[in-house]
Give the backbone structure.
Amino acid sequence: MSVMVIGGAGYIGAHVVRLLQQAGEEVVVVDDLSTSVAGRVGDSPLVVLDVATPEASRALEREMRERDVDAVIHFAARKQVGESVARPLWYYEQNVGGMGNVLAAMQAAGVSRMIFSSSAAVYGIPDVDLVEEDIPKNPINPYGRTKLIGEWMLEDCARAWDLRFVALRYFNVAGSGWDDLGDPAVMNLIPMVLERLARGEAPRVFGDDYPTPDGTCIRDYVHVRDLAEAHVAALEALRAGPTPHAVYNVGTGTGASVAEVIATIGEVTGLEVTPVVEARRPGDPPRLVASPARIADDLGFRSTTGLREIVATAWSAWQAGPRRVER
Ligand code: WQD
């Protein structure tokens, strides 16, 4: 019996692969290596495959049968909001098309459990302090829409055949569980600040006139290792039987502002960090913080790692990588 982790060489996927390996699971990784590196998957077999290609479904079905796969964890997707606005059809092809191929392979091979990487982007700009799973979903960009469509595909397939799934809606994932598994992309606040510091430039704050206490946007930062543990909890639950719900937020229930995150980076690194304020970035909700209650109640999962530890582990992995900050 083995677990197939699609997108398992990526930032979050590689953390899940490592936790599964440590738990003694047989793991097979599928990844196109477009934004990831093979070295991150350790000793597990790696199938290099883009799941959105026409031949992917047959190839996945074959791997699932040969390796006696009982569950799929599906990370592989494009995830840049701005890029999704510029290239919507490519996002639908990659994220929705890829999901269709994975599900078709699972149905053909008789694999009945899936954990899907969804996103807080499905909520759009919610006007609540704590986002509960059942509030209206109003994604405001193609990226968020492809994630919501992925959830709908799972719901429809679960009605039509023997499929059980858990969709995890990630809030702002950051930090690293191991120094060699840091976020290799520079697309989110903490790596973007570290990159500016590495270049000797001031970090940027995109707007300080939001209706929040310090005027900067508030997000729910969740440690990537905690998030990886949420996948392990979901896998255990799916193997034990039907879960009470199929969709769960993964966050902490505590928000931090952009100004607070940047100040924490200054404290942790000991560097002089004086940000510059720039214009608002289009489409940023002022506040996006998860209610973490449902996953705690149903699956016993809680994310407990605080912002300081998130920043400290992100910094440690950053300094172990190629773009270290010279002091
Ligand atoms: C956080 C806050 C920025 C950089 C995005 C996607 C979401 C999910 C996670 C993926 C915002 C501000 C940032 C900087 C800044 N995607 N900021 N200066 O936008 O909350 O979420 O990533 O799978 O779908 O939308 O994350 O890290 O980009 O930004 O002021 O240099 O930091 O404006 O308020 P975001 P982020």
Notes: The mean pLDDT is 97.
